[in-house]
Amino acid sequence: NQVKFPPEDIVFDPNVLTIGTGMEEHNNYGVDFIKATKKIKELCPYVKISGGISNLSFGFRGVNVVRESIHSVFLWHAITESGMDVGIVNSKELLDYTKLDPSMKKVCYDLVMNTRPDASELMLARTEYERACIAAKKEGRHKPRLPRCLVQDLPRKTFDWDNVEPRKATEPPLPVWDAAVNHVPSHYCNTKITHPKIAAAREGKMPTAEVAGWPDLTTDWAQDATKYPAGFPHFVRGRDSARVYFTELFTSQVAMYDGAMGTMIQRHKLEEDAFRGERFKDWTCNLKGNNDLLSITKPEIIKEIYTLYLKSGSNMIGTNTFSSTTIAQADYKMSHLAYELNYTSARLAREACDEITAADPTVPRFVVGALGPTNRTGSISPDVEDPSARNVTFDELVEAYFEQAVALMDGGADILMVETIFDTLNAKAALYAIGEYLEFSGIDVPVFISGTLVDQSGRTLSGQTGEAFYASVRHAKPMCVGLNCALGAQQMVPFLERMSKVAECFTLVYPNAGLPNVMGGYDDTPADLAKYNEVFVKNQWVNLVGGCCGCTPEHISALKQMIADGGHKPRPLPDVGRPKMWLSGLEDLVVDDVHNHLGLPFLNVGERCNIAGSIKFKKLMMAGNYGAAMDIAKAQVEDGAHVIDINVDDGMLDGMAAMQKFVKIAVTEPEIAKVPFMLDASKFDIVVAGLKWCQGKPIVNSISLKVGEELFKEHATLLRKHGAAVVVMAFDEHGQAATEEDKVRICQRSYDILVNQVKFPPEDIIFDPNVLTIGTGMEEHNNYGVDFIKATKKIKELCPYVKISGGISNLSFGFRGVNVVRESIHSVFLWHAITESGMDVGIVNSKELLDYTKLDPSMKKVCYDLVMNTRPDASELMLARTEYERACIAAKKEGRHKPRLPRCLVQDLPRKTFDWDNVEPRKATEPPLPVWDAAVNHVPSHYCNTKITHPKIAAAREGKMPTAEVAGWPDLTTDWAQDATKYPAGFPHFVRGRDSARVYFTELFTSQVAMYDGAMGTMIQRHKLEEDAFRGERFKDWTCNLKGNNDLLSITKPEIIKEIYTLYLKSGSNMIGTNTFSSTTIAQADYKMSHLAYELNYTSARLAREACDEITAADPTVPRFVVGALGPTNRTGSISPDVEDPSARNVTFDELVEAYFEQAVALMDGGADILMVETIFDTLNAKAALYAIGEYLEFSGIDVPVFISGTLVDQSGRTLSGQTGEAFYASVRHAKPMCVGLNCALGAQQMVPFLERMSKVAECFTLVYPNAGLPNVMGGYDDTPADLAKYNEVFVKNQWVNLVGGCCGCTPEHISALKQMIADGGHKPRPLPDVGRPKMWLSGLEDLVVDDVHNHLGLPFLNVGERCNIAGSIKFKKLMMAGNYGAAMDIAKAQVEDGAHVIDINVDDGMLDGMAAMQKFVKIAVTEPEIAKVPFMLDASKFDIVVA
User: Is the bond preceding residue 233 a cis peptide, omega within 30 degrees?
Assistant: First the structure.
């Protein structure tokens, strides 16, 4: 209001202060700034808000990614919510808010917005993590994984079938066979079971009755249905279902198992002869220690032990068959006795149980057929030199366990228990064998499973956790599962608790009597065991309790008593919810609960151990380098793979051998084996071979209906028995599904067969509906991505609980070679497939997976268009983007800066708006007004220059007016006012002193295209004047040549100059320019006539005044006006005259101002109506002239219209000092010219594009006076008057101008022709543009409208480069102190290349001459086009330095 400063040119800096310092009073500094910004912009229309952003994060210096992330979050909120516009930043390091890691964004938000009191501490923790990442990179280590709690997880897409209310379980999960599902009691008549494989297991293995010591060798154990009362707690074999019975038993009480067989045998202190007995007295090897053999050689001892346990309270007893497999008995050369050992031991237990049951039928006792671990392991190599070595195969284990199961059942077992499992692969073989037995026999036998965790790590000997062990065996649908051996009860507590939390069936525990002592014995007394086991029953973690090593009948009695005394209840079965896929390696993995490292609900299946997915892996496999291949697998797990895909399909490789060897080695590598495997092959027998070496629960990839329905079912059944999950490809007998319809049809058919016929668990089915290649250029491929995504959703709706997977790399195959493009396509595809359709699984390179939320918006858009097929040219656009990325790769390789992404591909954020933004454009009635009162109030100039006595104006005149005699006038007046009644009032008449020139020219320029004059020099040349004519009498003795000093002719040949003026006026010019192009002290110095500058201007203006008044008198309806012309001078403020020194100048701004000030005074004293700064080829000179004119108008208090005309020197459309026309206008518009335009250098034809652009930006009237074409070889101009008229017509036809004239080569005839062309065409002048809300408009060599700026991240924000600020760059400071301006310029250039819109220049330092340094830096910078194209921010603590 006081200074009249344009509000749009004000930038407030409300002080960005440091947050995260640990001082509470600093915590709100970010919020204060953001809130203040909004309030200031509401209260102060059109202003900008800036700040030194680096101050904000000063407390976190040293970790740039943290600092820049804080800045990014701060700027996002300050810009988008409060309208911050400008900031001093390092553009190169500015991070895109939309690409910030979500966890980083969250912690920065909490800090910036002060949302939690511990925000600074959390940011310090994040800073330490980032330091660790930097260290890892430096040392060549993998980046540490961000703590999972810091990753924000996306919700999983849900379907109707997800909304399953958990229900109370009435029994454990049931096996698939009918007898179990329908609770059919076992008939216990094993003679009826005649399946060939069972018969083969028995054949020739039953001893004679005489040898066995029984009168008969029965295998039938059914009882009379009336033997005991019906219903629980009674039980009759053949009448009652064991499954139903144990469900009731385990839900009503904590049942009792037995104790240790070995401990009880040790009490008898048996020696070798006892083990041998009569039958084996001549055996060729020692038999002591073969406890299982005692069932044959000392049956009375074994039966007695059984009986003691039963009498101590055991509801069930385990058979003495821990080592009764052909494999374990091979150590004693007794493999052939395996069937007999199991049969005999089970029969002895059967007899003992039946005897004790008969004594109390309300507590029936049961035989648990025990299948031990064997003394060989499928998962562990016996050779430390060869991790792929094994001493037993899966099939050998199955065969051994199958024979054992047959014999145990033939001997009278009620239950089969796979126990003391330290290698889960052995247990899986046992369960497979049991499954085969149950399938072949058609009976229902409850299966129990008990694992052994070998130490406090809570893992089996083969490395699995308890949860992974359970996940690996749960496919067998055990009725009861738990832990035994290796540990005492105290050590088992955390592990049993975890087992109790995950098991869907009943749970058991039978720990050792403590840990072994130094003698190998066990110290827990019965009371100890009871005490230490109480935690299990008190917390209801178990349904069945017993003891293992060191435990005796007394221990079992104590346990039973403790349970009775405590009234402890059994563990209830967990509620049944919706089924989930549960995989395992050494650790378990619930796929439905997985989120990957990007927070997506998605299972990353690592693709790099797939010959088709990695050339490196293929080469290693072909070379047999399994060690290095394992490194690839490890790296995938480290990089975020949840599952490792293993595929060794290659025609040159033995796939069967390679798959087995790879898996056998991989399972011994904890860092690999901890995750599940996906066994992947085109041949089914290869995946089955690999499956037989996996102790965990893997995925098999793949099966399909391509092989026909029967073989498909056969494959699926086998995989179900092994407990594997399966990938089912969308293939059928007719081929691969490509369309959405075919994908859905084939998958639905496959699902119905698998679930309803094969009884495959639906949650273990993964459909692969075929990810096919897009962007191939073939139209029929364009919708493949959409078809997959839509099919995924439909399949999941129709096929409850299934997963959807795909080989993601197929999608982008057409863009191979440019990984960032491929991974971006994958990221967009996965985002939509996962979040919208529920895709769960994918074979990917986890390390290279890109976070969708961090994708460059333009990349995201082009990928979206391609994946979702939203536009027909999507493939072409992606190819273009691919080429850009290739260029980036090349630039990086060659050490060049990354090329800038075409601006049209960056998505811009909307600017925060305020009430004052909603300004409806209004019609302009006049050009923008200067700030002085006379102009604002349209006060007519008094034209009485004698009244203007300001000291500076008086000084400019002093001693410079010639005498009247010398000048040739009777008086030397400076007053040009006319009588107010001289001409009628109102337009088109004009009387000086009465009428406002501003008002008059507004009416003139809005009503007609006005005419300017032509070339003064061209007309002078017609007179062919020689040296003497220029000298005249007055300067005949001048010491230097004067020919060429055209301005001097106003003194020496005034009649010629006045005649030229008159000719132009008669040809139609409304106004004529004075003959003062070079009438400054600076230009006249070439002729040693600087002292004549005032006189030259006064005289020329007075001659023009007289000519105008004479022509006006002849026709007062067309008043004529004098345009005081201020030329460019022959020196330039922006351009160095010395090619060796870009900082050199031959004139200063202040010298230019002084010269122009004197010229303006003299022109006005001589009678000028208008002042025009013309033929500008260096805008700095023009700014000096305008500054001088401004000073004159301020000191005089009058209103004089100012015109400005620039000169673009060639077809580049730039001035000699490098500015575009728009930048030129932006640089001078502060002077509020009434008219602006272009002249000289070019002809009308060449000026067309540049005048059009000027017409589009100028807020005032516009002018043009081109040359009569381009100069010919002789330096002349060839455009005739008719040519000039023709070539100028485009300007008036398009209404681009208000004032037209001619420059070099133009004559009165040309002006006449122009005027006639306008009249004939009825052409109208250019209307003033509408007036909208003001905007900040800066310029360097190019212009910049700050209010319209978006930075390289799409933010509505002005990046002010901070690196040419001594406080912002140590490197810059060192260079400035060393005077190395060249290298300092490189810093400035780099900032522009990196996205700075403005360069901040600050050389404040106590050790530096700031005044000299600032000037030198700027003088050099303006000569460097790559720097000077952007505006500068002149930054200093001392005002005189910025002014300099």
Answer: yes
